[in-house]
Amino acid sequence: MTTKIDSEILAVLPTPRDQQRWMTTPGVADAVRRFGTDVAHVKTVQRRLEALLEQGVVVNRRAGNALEWQRKDGASGIAAKAGAMMGFDEALALQVLNRFAGRQIPSLVSSSLKGLFDVADERIARGSSQEGRRHASWHRKVAVVDGAFRLIRPPIKEVVFQMVSHALFAEQLLEIGYRARSKPGNEPVRHVLMPLGLVEAAEMVYLVAKQPGKPNAVTYRLDRMESAEVKLESFAYPPDFSLAHYVENERHFDFFPQGKVQIVLRFAGDARHAVVETPISIDQAIETNDHDSITVRATVMLSDRLHWWIRAFGPYVEVLEPNSLRQTFANEAKRAHELYFTTGA
Asked: InterPro entries this protein is in (predicted)?
């Protein structure tokens, strides 16, 4: 149970970075009294310290016959306040957030939240009740698997990610040294940018940004940034820009989008289940054919990503419309046949 004295105790306790790193129980009681809180008995402080120890926000050590106390380095601010009141559900939610969204949380924020994540881990680990044990085992019962073929992500320099996140969070200009894909051997080109958002797509992390004075947003891969520096100048975040709209409607992460078209595809074998169970558009219509196949009609964005998705089904899908897309896959099939069956290859 949370008491008013907990926040005062956490406020006066030293951390590993302080010159005086430990404080005895009577010393904590005296410091709390100087803080303005009436403490009649040292045992009251002792009981609250033991409760905070159970919650994982303080540690202790034996020094002769006395116990000395220290606040955990991360247990300050919001973490210190939360430690005395965090339930198992809140701790589990924070644990899941840290596990699955750690890359996307701006580094400036994640540094501030580290103490909160640490408290959540301790709260889960120290749960002695049946409820606590169930919460502690939950992370072993949940996993996320990407449906795409797994690739090794290109490394992103830690300082680059930190600088990009900081500039995005603080709405300050960012100067980067960038190597374009078309010129990998050249010296990095310097760009001054207004960072607007971070997007993780197809194993890559992209910065969506505008160059000052230019109207359109552009994407930059973080792994191609040789350097990044936060400038002192701030900028006004465009009120008419929406990252969600940019991703959903501009479709830049579909890679070379060419506009929406209606496609007609014939699926055979087990490939049928892929579009029956997970439709490719809200207007998808399915017609069942003879010979264990289906015909699918849907309005989709014509893009490289669509090409990659269709290719993944190999001989179990046939493009019927539009004719230009059908011709593209017919030419690819012809080239593939020549690769595998041309004599003397």
From this structure: CBASS_pafABC_assoc_protein, WCX_dom, WYL_dom
Give CA–CA dist 211/192, Å, rounded. 6
Whether 181 has a pLDDT exceeding 60, the answer reads yes
Q: H or E stretch including 336? A: helix 323-341
pLDDT digits (tens, 9 = 90+) for 123-171: 666 555 555 566 666 666 666 666 666 767 788 888 898 889 889 988 9
What's the confidence (pLDDT) of residue 247?
82
Domain range summary for the chain, segments of one domain joined by +: 5-79, 86-141, 158-237, 260-341
At the topology level, CATH places domain 158-237 in SH3 type barrels. (2.30.30)
Three-state helix/strand/coil letters over 238-302: CCCCCHHHHHHHHCHHHCCCCCEEEEEEEEEHHHHHHHHHCCCCCCCEEEECCCCEEEEEEEEEC
Domain 260-341 has CATH 3.40.50: no
Torsion angle of C-alpha atoms 300, 303, 309, 313, degrees rounded to 10: 90
- Is the pTM higher than 0.90? The answer reads no
Instruction: Report the distance separating Cα 271 and Cα 327, nearest Å.
Output: 21
> In CATH terms, are 5-79 and 158-237 the same topology?
no
Partners of residue 193 on adjacent β-strands: 174
CATH for 5-79 is 1.10.10.10
Which amino acid would we find at residue 187?
A: E
| Pair 232, 172: CB distance under 8 Å | yes
